[in-house]
Design goal:
single chain; 8-stranded mixed sheet; 17 helices; alpha/beta; elongated; 7-stranded mixed sheet
Length: 563
Amino acid sequence: MSEILRFEPFSSAVEPEFWASVAHHKLHTARLDTAARDVQGSFACGRRHTVRSGGESGQTVAVPARLRVGAGDGSSNGDVVVGGRLHNTNTVEDFKRLDKGALLREAGAAVLEAIQSGRASEDPSLLWAFVVVSFADLKRYRFWHWFGFPAVMADPADTVWSATQGISEAVGGNDDSELEGLVSRCARFVSETRHGAFLAERRNGSWQVHPLSAWDGCMAGDGNSSDVVVGFVDPSSHGSRPGWPLRNLLAWVRRQRLPTRRVRVLCFRDGGLQGVSGAELRQRAQSLVVSVDVAAATEGLLVSGWERDAGGRAAPRVADLSASMDAERLAASALDLNLQLMRWRLAPGVDVARMAGQRVLLVGAGTLGAYAARALLAWGVRRMTFVDSGRVSFSNPARQPLYDFSDSLDGGRPKAEAAADAMRRIFPGVDARAVSLQVPMPAHSVSASEAAATRAAAAELDALVAAHDVVFLLTDSRESRWLPAMLGALHAKVVLCVALGFDSYVAMRHGVKSDSGSMNLGCYFCNDVVAPADSLSDRSLDQQCTVTRPGLAPIAAGTAVEL
């Protein structure tokens, strides 16, 4: 009595690189666009493996029929490459609301059209197109996904009219050469063409392998189809059930001219045994020969194929990559996320890569320098140099967010060094450097013993300004901004200057000379009629320190960064 033919379903095996490519495409290219895009996957011959323990023969383990999906096609020699369509939604609610039945029917209709038009005869991979629906949570690196492997179903179902046999039992009897020839030719055909389906024809005791397009020629020879076998690369390793690709291959068969409804199918699983011969081949061969009573084609379209979970339920899955990702790479991706999201809708012209490549010099690592550095990091700036000659005092950590109590102990750490270390703790990928340097200031007298050191400091500051793209003037006194402002103009650098009062502030961008020599913007000192004076000597403590509202510094520094 005939039995309904049963199939081993596909199981998706998605490499982390695939989700990384999905995230990159969503963030940088697709943004809010939810149009489907092409992806690729592959499958190979299924094999059962023997697990040995302690040198003794162990248990034979069947490997699930896998469709592997990676950043590329992810295939090796002999694998069958198939195409798919990825539908990536903007929200998890959209993912849940998506009409998945309609998507699968659409994919099944495309398979049927490829069969009826003859395109599948030339390119059998069209029989196994797949669909993926997904939602990428780019903040947590979690990916909701559901794979569909559309199968055009028969109604009534195809049946098995004879017991399934192993290839060693079904082919050649005691003649090893016939079995060797069939396995070798099938393996070579699959490897060379990457076609997942073929026809094997036996004539005069030997086997020849042909593409599906040779169907009419094989059947027209003598009107006898008993020596023609329909073959396919079978990803299943089940002892009696063929893999999912056979479903659509049988849909192709039922729409060909058939001398009889009974067809033998070779479920080819021995691609790795090319060159193996004799008793070893008979022992190791795992391919099956299934005798199928093919149902007649019907007008309607019945499609199934959504992937099931480990419990056998049709349900989506979630890939959580956050635990397996390198922490620094995850931090880098998260750091850029806000900037990339700006480009989706609010500020499409933001050049994130250009900002990341800017070299920024921060002259002053106090309250303004600390807040400016954090804001620059949030804008994606990865290379910055702190210049300061001071040390962290006990009054600093409450107002300057890059320092803590430990930095003020034992006389205080050098501010530039402590600031650079803090930035690396915040984000290990930042290139933060420290230079302990007293900025030479006009109107401050220099003794003969200090002259050489002052000239060296001026030369070092000149080299630093020349080596950076943007200079921030974030010091406490007016005169300390003068020399770096002049050097910025000399080297045509973008200079940002910030100065604080008690309840007011100045944040301005200096002008840069153009090729024509004009300057559209002035600098902090353009309205001065005299050089800056010494504002620090002979002053009481409240005049020496920058006494300002505590909430003003982050506003002023943030304004300068936005400029």
